[in-house]
């Protein structure tokens, strides 16, 4: 070996614009599934996608009133220079598992409508002051949304290491970002030029969703430090409190809380949120899948006595749907009424045989009086297809009237003394789907109590029932059964001269 040849040779990699296809292949496979070609999975996927869309709408509406007041408070404090740190305390209740979604929605709303500078810090980020400050400043400066449009070289130059994240770096970054607004000219705060610059700058919002999990001493020092920079860096704090305001008073003594301007907001309780989800999603005709009374009672008990998490309740509901549909293509009959014919057209002979193995099919055959039709049910797939289509349509119609019946009965019994059938519609649903309601002693007790109602209270309940029925008639004007019931109730009110 020559003396001027190294034993080891280096390999150097140069970027030549090559982009890996790994990420692209992941995107292509994201929506693929090993069950994608199965009929039952396609029906399940379509139904759950519709449910998720409705849940997203409800989740957005859930925080609308709270967010409206909160956003208004932020806007008001953004337009003026204050000596105290504007602070929002959001009382979220003990429903810890759902806090993540709530603050994710809040952060998104702030970034879209108020300021792009919004950082969320978890409790584990607040155990050490250095760690807390580095994570906060890193979140502001190295925002992925701000760096996404840069090239690789620009990203490397713009990116700042976490160890280099200090308040002086944050101040320099902020001044450079809004250099055209003359932010450093604070000598004449009341001058028109200064007021215009204050209006144009964007606040730095720091969200801490779980105040109880933060180190109190670290949090106190953090607030005192950012208060000292308030004349050059417009901070805004948002704290999430799961228990009560006592936790805030304990974490922030007077010498710290006096540096803040605190506004308290309360979010919707998780029990109210669950009732809203049930009444507007799962107890409607838009959800073809329904839980039995015992399983539903189990899920509600887990919610009430274990975690108070609506997210976990929805997951349990989804797992129940998955278990049901995964039994085979015959479970695809759990669908919307207008899709039954198309789904039955895709059934194979084996799918019809799966239907014949159901316990309910045995009852159907035994109730058929004609021997010839019994044989047809057992041997003729085309005949079975017609019968199944009729029976599933009848089932969907029954569910439609069940949901209306639930709402009407709930209006009658929800405020009776001792509430024999429960205070919430979910309790009534569990009873109705687990036993014959008319044979239930509590049902008979409710109607005995209704006999003691005054004429005014009874008529008011009947008017609310009529309004509920007419809302359903607005959706389906050709529903003759509902129309008949509605007319009978109106005639009864006329007899009462109300």
UniProtKB/TrEMBL annotation:
Residues 4-333 form the Origin recognition complex subunit 3 N-terminal domain. Residues 346-496 form the Origin recognition complex subunit 3 insertion domain. InterPro entries: ORC3, ORC3_ins, ORC3_N. The keyword Signal does not apply. Pfam families: ORC3_ins, ORC3_N. GO terms for cellular component: DNA replication preinitiation complex; nuclear origin of replication recognition complex; nuclear pre-replicative complex. GO terms for biological process: DNA replication initiation. GO terms for molecular function: DNA replication origin binding. The keyword Membrane applies. It comes from Henosepilachna vigintioctopunctata. Keywords: Membrane, Transmembrane, Transmembrane helix. The lineage of its organism: Eukaryota, Metazoa, Ecdysozoa, Arthropoda, Hexapoda. The chain crosses the membrane at residues 229-248, 288-308. This is Origin recognition complex subunit 3.
């Amino acid at each position: 070996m020559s003396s001027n040849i190294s034993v080891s040779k280096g390999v150097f990699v140069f970027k030549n614009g090559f982009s890996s296809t790994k990420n692209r292949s992941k995107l292509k496979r994201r929506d693929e599934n090993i069950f994608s070609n199965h009929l039952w999975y396609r029906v399940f996927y379509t139904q759950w996608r519709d449910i998720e869309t409705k849940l997203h709408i409800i989740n957005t509406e859930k925080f609308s009133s709270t967010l409206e007041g909160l956003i208004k408070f932020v806007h008001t404090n953004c337009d003026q220079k204050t000596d105290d740190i504007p602070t929002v305390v959001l009382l979220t209740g003990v429903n810890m598992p759902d806090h993540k979604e709530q603050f994710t929605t809040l952060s998104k709303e702030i970034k879209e409508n108020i300021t792009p500078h919004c950082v969320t810090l978890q409790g584990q980020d607040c155990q050490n002051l250095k760690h807390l400050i580095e994570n906060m400043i890193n979140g502001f400066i190295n925002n992925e949304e701000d760096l996404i449009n840069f090239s690789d070289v620009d990203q490397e130059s713009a990116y700042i290491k976490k160890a280099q994240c200090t308040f002086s770096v944050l101040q320099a970054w902020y001044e450079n970002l809004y250099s055209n607004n003359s932010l450093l000219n604070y000598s004449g705060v009341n001058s028109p030029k200064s007021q215009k610059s204050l209006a144009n700058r964007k606040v730095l919002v720091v969200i801490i969703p779980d105040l109880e999990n933060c180190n109190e001493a670290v949090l106190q020092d953090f607030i005192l430090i950012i208060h000292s920079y308030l004349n050059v860096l417009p901070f805004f704090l948002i704290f999430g409190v799961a228990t009560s305001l006592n936790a805030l008073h304990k974490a922030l003594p007077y010498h710290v809380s006096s540096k803040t301007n605190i506004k308290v907001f309360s979010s919707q309780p998780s029990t109210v949120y669950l009732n809203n989800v049930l009444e507007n999603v799962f107890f409607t005709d838009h959800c073809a899948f329904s839980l039995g009374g015992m399983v539903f009672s189990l899920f509600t008990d887990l919610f009430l006595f274990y975690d108070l998490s609506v997210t976990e309740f929805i997951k349990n509901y989804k797992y129940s749907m998955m278990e049901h549909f995964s039994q085979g293509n015959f479970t695809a009959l759990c669908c919307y009424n207008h899709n039954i014919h198309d789904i039955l057209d895709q059934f194979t002979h084996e799918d019809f045989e799966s239907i014949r193995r159901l316990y309910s099919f045995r009852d159907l055959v035994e109730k058929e009086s004609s021997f010839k039709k019994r044989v047809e049910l057992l041997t003729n797939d085309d005949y079975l297809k017609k019968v199944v289509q009729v029976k599933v349509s009848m089932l969907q119609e029954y569910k439609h009237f069940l949901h209306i019946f639930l709402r009407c009965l709930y209006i009658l019994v929800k405020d009776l003394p001792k509430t024999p059938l429960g205070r919430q519609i979910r309790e009534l649903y569990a009873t109705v789907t687990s036993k014959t309601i008319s044979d239930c002693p509590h049902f008979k007790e409710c109607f005995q109590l209704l006999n003691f109602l005054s004429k005014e209270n009874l008529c008011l309940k009947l008017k609310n029932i009529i309004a509920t029925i007419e809302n359903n008639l607005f959706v389906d004007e050709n529903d003759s059964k509902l129309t008949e019931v509605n007319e009978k109730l109106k005639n009864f009110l006329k007899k009462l001269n109300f």
